[in-house]
């Protein structure tokens, strides 16, 4: 079982004085729907594995790597026999604008396979084995090494996406550098102002583009529409607010930046497959409040 699960909220059991956790999991045990603020990376070593995340059902073969974004509700299904690496790195203490740019590329999760990502698969697979070895033989600078290797995985994914999603006319180095700087600024701005009444026109003007050109570039660089990106930020924040039972759902909606309760309810269910009240009830459920033995 998961170490610390209150309803559907997992408090990750990080190694003491670190922001990293890794299990070499051999249990023939399923894990119920849960979420946490850290990334989660799963790589089967022997036999396959299955993960349901968001609206997607991932069947992970041996050696393939699934990277799950923070705050995504997911459920794990184990075969009768098998082994897999389950790695949970927390990056909340690392303030990098590029993390806000790459997260929507992965959302809700990305499955790195040899067939779909031939340019980066071998490198990411090797990095995962190095992360496991570093964690199992933990010593001075191991946390730094592990976080550096995970960031390298994110870099591989981000650069691979950029290489395959450039559009005609936007491919020269000058424009790529200009656009990247703009969108690092914009995603950081949205992360700091998502609770305000932001509009496509306003943010496009801030970036210095027409709303049509901005919308096209935003999709290219984040793999998400402007409003989807904005609402994901709001819903991510709303989840943390819903953990407070004293806060009314209407207040959660307002504090998260939604102009109406109906818009909040609709978007929350679309992204989480449940209503805010159902989400809160799952968190408050007494069924799984007792700490258990962990993902190992």
Tell me the fraction of residues in β-strands, as a range. Answer: 15-25%
Secondary structural class: alpha+beta
What's the overall average pLDDT, rounded?
Answer: 87
The largest pleated sheet is described as: 5 strands, antiparallel
Name the strands of the widest sheet in spatial order: 3-10-5-8-11
Task: Please tell me what the overall shape is.
Answer: globular
Number of DSSP strands? 11
- Taken in chain order, the helices and strands follow as EEEEEEEEEEHEHHHHHHHHH
Poorly predicted residue ranges: 286-293
From the alpha carbons, calculate the radius of gyration and give it in angstroms. Answer: 20 Å
Number of helices: 10
Describe this structure in words.
This protein is an alpha+beta fold and 296 residues long. A five-stranded antiparallel sheet has the order 3-10-5-8-11, covered by helices on one side. It has helices at residues 97-106, 121-136, 142-164, 173-193, 200-207, 211-222, 226-242, 249-255, 261-272, 276-284; strands at residues 5-6, 9-10, 20-25, 31-34, 40-46, 49-53, 56-60, 65-68, 74-77, 83-89, 109-112. It contains ten helices and eleven strands. The protein is globular, with a radius of gyration of 20 Å.
């Amino acid at each position: 079982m998961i170490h610390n699960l209150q309803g559907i909220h997992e408090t990750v059991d990080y190694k003491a004085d670190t922001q990293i956790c890794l299990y070499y999991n051999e249990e023939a045990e399923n894990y119920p729907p849960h979420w946490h603020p850290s990334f989660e990376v799963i790589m089967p070593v022997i036999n396959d594995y299955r993960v349901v995340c968001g609206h997607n059902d991932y069947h992970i073969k041996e050696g393939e790597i699934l990277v799950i974004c923070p705050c995504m509700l997911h459920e794990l299904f184990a075969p009768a026999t098998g082994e897999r690496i389950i790695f949970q790195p927390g990056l909340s203490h690392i303030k990098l604008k590029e993390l806000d740019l790459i997260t929507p590329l992965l959302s809700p999760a990305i499955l790195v396979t040899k067939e779909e990502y031939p340019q980066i698969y071998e490198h990411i697979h090797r990095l995962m084995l190095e992360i496991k070895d570093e964690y199992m033989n933990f010593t001075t600078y191991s946390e730094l090494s592990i976080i550096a290797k995970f960031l390298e995985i994110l870099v591989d994914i981000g650069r691979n996406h950029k290489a395959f999603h450039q559009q005609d006319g936007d491919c020269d180095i000058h424009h790529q550098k200009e656009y990247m700087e703009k969108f690092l600024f914009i995603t950081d701005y949205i992360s700091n102002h998502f609770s305000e009444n932001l509009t496509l026109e306003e943010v496009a003007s801030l970036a210095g583009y027409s709303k049509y050109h901005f919308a096209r570039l935003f999709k290219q660089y984040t793999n998400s529409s402007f409003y989807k990106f904005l609402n994901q930020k709001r819903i991510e924040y709303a989840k943390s607010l819903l953990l407070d039972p004293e806060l009314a759902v209407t207040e959660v909606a307002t504090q998260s930046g939604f102009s109406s309760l109906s818009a909040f309810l609709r978007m929350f269910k679309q992204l989480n497959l449940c209503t805010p009240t159902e989400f809160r009830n799952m968190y408050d459920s007494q069924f799984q409040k007792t700490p258990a033995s962990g993902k190992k």
